[in-house]
Design goal:
Layout (H helix, E strand, L loop, with lengths): L1 H21 L11 H33 L5 H21 L2 E3 L4 E3 L7 H29 L5 H30 L4 H12 L1 H11 L1 H4 L3 H24 L5 H22 L1
Antiparallel strand pairs: 1-2
């Protein structure tokens, strides 16, 4: 039961940060410079890369070793499964990327806003899973308090990157002419899936305990798919590619420091 409270706090924090980021539409009444979008997306990508490695893959390898498994096997299989899972969702769910104005998935006559909701939902499923699985792993190993600190670091890092990510969803919609309140609502909606999947992971923790290393690496693979498929390409649009690269590195560095300092 305690793990539920922990994951509620963790996913509640990352959701709140998404909402705060989306609230930037009320401050920027006019169009923002493309460089801000580049910085937001690059920073989010850097945090997610570090979170995938330090917060998910390394704990998956360590957990496999403690369980007597071949250490690299669950990480490799779970990682590949996470990538294929997101790839499959990309193919079967119609969605629209706001920065690229690009429709992916099967042809659909649904409204643009609905397609955008699908896109940001796909982004945030792995993040909610990652936080939920991290706290579930900590709950399964109560003697190892470092796992709770590592889970807190992961939630903190993802929450920090959710602020610019929420802004990166809402601001382009505002610039396209959508009313501020509606653009804010879209940004909020983009993060609503995170608490749901975080709680789901904790709820089924006892069922997935034997395959926890696979699940941790599954979330890592799904997160890195989002980074490579969408965040980094969108962060390098236009003439600000160097700024996008630096933003990725800064995000990675901050998440790495958080994980080492708190873990």
């Amino acid at each position: 039961m305690l793990s539920i409270y922990w994951v509620l706090a963790g996913t509640g924090f990352i959701f709140a940060m998404t909402c705060l980021g989306a609230a930037m539409v009320f401050l920027f009444r006019k169009s923002t410079k493309p460089v801000f979008q580049t910085i937001f997306l690059g920073f989010a990508a850097g945090v997610m890369i570090a979170a995938s490695v330090f917060g998910l893959l390394l704990p998956a390898i360590e957990s496999a070793g403690k369980s007597g498994m071949i250490e690299w096997l669950p990480a490799a299989v779970g990682f590949a499964a996470g990538v294929l899972f997101l790839l499959g969702l990309d193919k079967i769910i119609p969605h629209l990327h706001p920065s690229l104005n690009l429709l992916e998935g099967p042809h659909s006559s649904m409204k643009r806003t609905t397609l955008l909701v699908f896109a940001v939902t796909l982004h945030n499923i792995p993040e909610g899973m990652a936080v939920g699985l991290s706290f579930a792993l900590a709950a399964q190993n109560p003697a190892d308090t470092s796992l709770y600190f590592a889970a807190v670091a992961l939630a903190l890092g993802i929450g920090i990157q959710n602020f610019p990510e929420g802004a990166a969803v809402a601001l382009p919609l505002r610039q396209e002419g959508m009313k501020s309140r509606k653009a804010f609502g879209m940004g909020v909606l983009s993060g609503a899936v995170e608490p749901l999947f975080g709680i789901l992971m904790v709820a089924i923790a006892s069922l997935i305990e034997p395959i926890m290393p696979y699940m941790l690496s599954f979330a890592a693979g799904a997160m890195l798919y989002v980074v490579v498929e969408e965040l980094i390409p969108e962060a390098h649009l236009g003439e600000h590619s160097n700024i996008g690269t630096i933003s990725v590195m800064v995000g990675f560095l901050i998440m790495m420091i958080l994980d080492v300092a708190l873990g």
